[in-house]
Write a sequence for this structure.
């Protein structure tokens, strides 16, 4: 298994894995092991990868060029997230939230997610290794730029909440958007300066 930054050859596989797990595209989806609410195109994934990074986990034994996609985690900047209603609603609340020694609005954050692990590969440690590779990649690409990692998880997705809590994220906020409740979770990924 290989964990690396996404490349152009991964974009279509990212769309396929997302689409298999998105309630936006399949209202009858079995959500017992979590669900995504995104409907990104290959171009959207390329834009996210460019904005900060996408880490993929691939099985390099597979015949597919670049390996079979087993999971991915996206990361993007707050500025990038202002263009969509739901993350913008989360960010608007950062003025009121104090976390790890300061107001969230004043802290350099990276927004993580969506994150997804293919059904057959869940519970295998890929989730935490994706995040580990992501934080390593971010510190290499943007040294010292981000202090906090922040993610948005539906309250109706206890599996995702549990997985994020296992890697050290804690709940910092809860809010309602379009009649659905979301948790904002966060963790420090670099020491606060000043
Ligand atoms: C969410 C997801 C990325 C997590 O990856 P994973 O490999 O399943 O995660 P892990 O197995 O490392 O951790 C899940 C934890 O939740 C627990 N869990 C499973 N079902 C649960 C449930 N219904 N309620 C609460 N906890 C649950 C597991 O027991 C495990 O904890 P443990 O290792 O202490 O036993 C993956 O399940 C997935 O891709 N789901 C579909 C898409 C999705 O929901 N993405 C996240 C959107 S925010």
């Amino acid at each position: 298994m290989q964990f690396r930054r996404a490349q152009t050859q991964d974009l279509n596989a990212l769309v396929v894995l997302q689409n298999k797990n998105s309630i936006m595209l399949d209202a009858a989806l079995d959500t017992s092991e979590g669900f995504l609410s995104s409907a990104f195109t290959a171009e959207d994934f390329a834009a996210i990868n460019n904005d900060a990074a996408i880490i993929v986990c691939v099985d390099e034994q597979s015949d597919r060029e670049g390996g079979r996609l087993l999971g991915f985690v996206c990361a993007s900047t707050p500025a990038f997230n202002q263009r969509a209603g739901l993350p913008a609603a989360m960010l608007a609340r950062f003025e009121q939230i104090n976390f790890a020694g300061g107001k969230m609005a004043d802290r350099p954050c990276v927004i993580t997610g969506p994150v997804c692990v293919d059904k057959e590969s869940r519970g295998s440690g890929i989730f935490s290794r994706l995040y580990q590779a992501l934080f390593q990649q971010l510190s290499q690409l943007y040294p010292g730029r981000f202090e906090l990692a922040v993610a948005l998880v539906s309250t109706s997705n206890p599996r995702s909440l549990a997985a994020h809590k296992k890697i050290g994220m804690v709940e910092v906020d809860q809010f309602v958007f379009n009649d659905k409740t979301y948790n904002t979770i966060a963790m420090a990924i670099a020491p606060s300066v000043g």
About this structure: The chain has one domain: 2-188. The domain at 2-188 is CATH 3.40.630.30 (Aminopeptidase). The pocket of coenzyme A is lined by residues 21, 33-36, 113-117, 122-123, 126-127, 153, 157-160, 162-163, 166 (CB under 6 Å).
